[in-house]
Task: inverse folding
């Protein structure tokens, strides 16, 4: 019988497999899932990755402040950054501003916090969302905080590379400008993903299945990573990362 | 935003920033404009005016009588913001007689960047002040609950913001007990 795991643990493992050795990686505020994934990768296949986590003492190489990370990204020196959105849409746009009409919103959110720059300037952006439903994956976001497709005139391509959810891994097809269902996580079927996504996906045949988290992955996540992450996100660790 | 504050701190007339193209932020913010990079072909960039706040307020652990202040935690962005502001006010847990020098942890705001110093023990409440008092989670919980609704939020403001005559009255209302000064 395979080991059980939480959806957050699975997402952290999926994210860790995407991290490449030697990359310089930035992780913004309030991002425990990618932080877990990157620390895990650093302990497994990517020991030479430089991991920069806002809000951490151990994983923050600058003496102070968050503008250093911001300006480092603007120089084009980040290989990988993580973003999320209350909504993510068919064109790769993300929304961190409002739900509903901008002038009279149902919900007002914190705003861009640099994401409209980071989405263009990091070499690769991985999106993640802990809820995979039709209200999070929409045809068109209520507000474009950061654009998935840049105007033709822009000097860089920008936009997303993949999005990780509790159900699946979607890959952004830069040529066709659409999301492809790259892999379905264990326990879910293609139809589960399609029915919970508010726009059509490119579906290859056959669709791959995400390999289950391995014993070494779960062991590292629940020991070394858990301890390190506890210092940054104690409440998250308590609820979402199981003890070894 | 960082860039705009930084431009303010440098006295630069405007700043060019990367990204933002295609974002609805450009529709909503008339102060952000797209121009052609004058130094490079085919490179539209967003430009923004500097931010220079009328007043910036910082809470410090200690300040001296000429205006040197030591704020809590290493936050160089504070220094950038102080230099961007027209006027800088420092509230401090304590005023010390000996002139403060940089170093020893915390962010040093030099007197040349500070206009006024006010002694306000407990001035960070309901947030915490490293090594002196912790963040008041019970009060923050009360605030979060009150902020959910217009009427309860008004009541909160009346009770804690407009009601108390001064800061001492506020501290007594929230039940804050200042710790004794260290040696």
Result:
């Amino acid at each position: 019988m395979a080991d059980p795991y939480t959806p957050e643990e699975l997402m952290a493992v999926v994210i860790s497999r995407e991290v490449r050795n030697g990359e310089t990686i930035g992780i913004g505020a309030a991002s425990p899932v990618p932080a877990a994934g990157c620390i895990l990768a650093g302990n497994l296949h990517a020991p030479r990755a430089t991991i920069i986590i806002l809000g951490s003492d151990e994983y923050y190489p600058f003496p102070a402040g968050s503008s250093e990370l911001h300006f480092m990204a603007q120089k084009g020196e980040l290989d990988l950054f993580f973003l999320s959105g209350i909504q993510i849409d068919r064109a790769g746009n993300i929304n961190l501003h409002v739900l509903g009409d901008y002038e009279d919103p149902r919900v007002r959110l914190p705003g861009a916090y640099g994401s409209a720059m980071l989405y263009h300037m990091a070499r690769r952006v991985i999106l993640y969302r802990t809820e995979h439903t039709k209200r999070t994956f929409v045809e068109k976001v209520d507000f474009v905080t950061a654009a998935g497709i840049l105007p033709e005139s822009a000097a860089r391509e920008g936009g997303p590379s993949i999005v990780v959810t509790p159900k699946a891994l979607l890959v952004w097809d830069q040529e066709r400008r659409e999301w492809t269902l790259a892999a379905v996580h264990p326990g879910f079927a293609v139809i589960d993903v399609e029915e919970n996504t508010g726009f059509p996906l490119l579906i290859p045949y056959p669709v791959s299945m995400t390999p289950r988290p391995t014993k070494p992955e779960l062991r590292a996540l629940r020991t070394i990573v858990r301890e390190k992450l506890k210092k940054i996100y104690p409440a998250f660790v308590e609820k979402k990362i199981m003890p070894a | 935003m960082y860039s705009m504050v930084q431009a303010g701190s440098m006295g630069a007339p405007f700043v060019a920033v990367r990204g933002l193209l295609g974002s609805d932020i450009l529709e909503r913010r008339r102060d952000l404009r797209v121009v052609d990079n004058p130094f490079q072909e085919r490179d539209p960039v967003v430009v923004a005016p500097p931010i220079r706040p009328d007043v910036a307020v910082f809470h410090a652990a200690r300040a001296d009588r000429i205006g040197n202040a030591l704020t809590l935690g290493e936050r160089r962005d504070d220094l950038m913001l102080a230099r961007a502001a027209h006027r800088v006010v420092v509230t401090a847990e304590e005023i010390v007689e000996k002139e403060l020098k940089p170093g020893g942890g915390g962010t040093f705001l030099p007197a040349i960047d500070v206009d006024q110093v006010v002694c306000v023990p407990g001035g960070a409440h309901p947030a915490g002040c490293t090594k002196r008092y912790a963040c008041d989670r019970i009060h923050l919980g009360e605030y979060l609950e009150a902020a959910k609704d217009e009427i309860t939020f008004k009541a909160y403001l009346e009770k804690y913001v407009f009601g108390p005559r001064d800061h001492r009255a506020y501290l007594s209302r929230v039940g804050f007990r200042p710790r004794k000064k260290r040696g």
User: Anything to note?
Assistant: The helical segments of chain B are 2-10, 25-28, 76-84, 137-146, 150-162, 167-174. Chain B touches chain A through 26 residues (CB under 8 Å).
